[in-house]
Amino acid sequence: MNIGMTLTKFLLEEQRRVPGSKGNFTAFFSDLVVAAKIISREVNRAGLIDILGAAGNQNVHGEEVQKLDEYANSMFIKTMEHGGHLSGMASEEIDEIIKVDPRYPRGKYLLLFDPLDGSSNIDVNISVGTIFSILKCNPECDLTEKDFLKAGVEQVCAGYILYSSSTMFVYTTGHGVHGFTLDPNVGEFLLSHENIRIPERGKIYSINEGNSRHWLPGTSLYIEKLKNDEKNYTARYVGSLVADFHRNLLKGGVFLYPADRKSINGKLRLLYEANPLSFIVEQAGGKASTGDKRILDIVPEKLHQRVPLIIGSKKDVEEAESFWQYREA
Ligand code: P6P
Known about the structure:
2 domains, alpha+beta, Fructose-1,6-Bisphosphatase, Chain A, domain 1, binds 6-O-phosphono-alpha-D-fructofuranose
């Protein structure tokens, strides 16, 4: 493992392999890395919020304290909008699309993100994450929501930042999945997981069993099968999508937030949660499905539309899909 390889250097080497690349993407991505470092610093200070003041109040310095997900959202927008690489953004926190202020030059990318997914876990010091997806657009166009409604196969880049015992930055541009760990003393993300591959089958399943009374028959039959499988599957559910996904990506396993009688479209969002993680998992050799459709093939109809998500090791997802036929009550 090359411990001296920073994310920026790795990106430059990736860029050299793209003929005719002018370095725009690398410069754009570097802005994203800065935002990740700043959010990581604030998330890691969250435990001090009692001293610094709870969200919505003033801290000991008399400063207004923002909720961390609002802070992460505004940090992303402020860090990304002036670089001249973006034409617009879409955030889980904001209903409408965000057009780049006319003061700044427009670029050929669109950034879609969930700035701090699982933020309700922060108060109890559980890992949280940022998820992002990058699409291309025509910088001259009159940008509308329609420009964001692209199937996941059109993503040019996807990634997440996991704020946990360490902060990790994991991304793909379609040339494998690579993971970097933040060294806070150096202030750099260093290559720690080059070319991540998810095991073809795991022994972990992640689902909120508290919803079992709403499950469709296929889900109940599949989970029952896992509980009695001689491979001794184990249940692991953090309740923070990035943490659950990352563990299963490295160890193998399947995460399910399926359609059920309470939420027929599941809970998770297509454009900035399911699509980016599906691009990553497929690049790592895994699979991502609604139960009967490949996530990356879905043509979105609405910016914040939800989608059922079964994602992880290829063989595990395929086995879950085989129970889909029992979905009717
Ligand atoms: P539930 C967090 O709120 C989140 O959006 C994801 O991070 C997580 O996977 C899911 O919701 C957990 O939802 O209904 O199991 O609490």
